[in-house]
Amino acid sequence: MDKFCERKTINNKISQPVNALSAISLLIVAILVIVTKNTIVLTPLFKKLFAITLSFMAITTFLAHKNPTNKFLGRLDIYSMIIFVNFIILANITIIRKISDKQLLLLFLALTILSTILFKYLNLSIFIILMLILIVSFTSIIFSNKLIKKDIYIYTSGIVFLVALIVWKYSKTGQKLCNPSSLIQGHAIWHILCAISIFLMLKFYQSIEFMSE
């Protein structure tokens, strides 16, 4: 047993099956991204990067819980979250500044390289910095008078994510929501709530239209 609470199974290929399999929820949202109809915001490249970064996070989450004692997989799991947040920040910038798909791709590659370097030296601090930038970027979209959108989706997404954070905090080993032998794991619920939050984010992007000049 480690900080993720779920008791490791013995003689099983997946050490923490509930936590690991809950990563499928993220993969489902990635599929929904791909099949969502193209819009002025959800361009083919936008959707591909969205789905790829989200799928990468789903896969690393599964692997990290399949073998929770592997430190490399644990760091890779955190790194995948950073890559995903990078994409969402840049996605928001494309909406605010109306940059092209080519610029989006180049900026994503540049920020990914920079984040990789910073992650080596700053560890989780880089994730906190990126989350603050993410909040600012969404705030800029919400208060923009040049966009038509359904803000209820992003507000609800934020609320769901806050609930997910609370569950994550209190479902660690030794915390109130931790029950190592239960089939209902708080950390698995954290994964599922994050998937719901991201799906609502997708709906928010889908609702965005640019007002006529």
Unreliable runs: none
Average pLDDT metric: 91
Class by alpha and beta content:
mainly alpha
Report on the biggest sheet.
2 strands, antiparallel
**CA-based shape:** globular
Strand content: under 5%
Number of strands: 2
Radius of gyration: 18 Å
User: Strand order across the biggest sheet?
Assistant: 1-2
Domain count: the total is: 1
Order of helices and strands: HHHHHHEHHE
Distance between the termini: 58 Å
- Range of helix content: over 70%
Report on this model:
The structure is a single chain. This protein has about 210 residues and is mostly helical. The chain has one domain. It is built from 8 helices and 2 strands. The protein has helices spanning about 15-20, 25-35, 45-65, 70-95, 100-120, 125-140, 150-170, 185-205; strands at about 145-150, 210. A two-stranded antiparallel sheet has the order 1-2. The protein starts with 16 loop residues before the first helix and ends with a strand. The mean pLDDT is about 90.
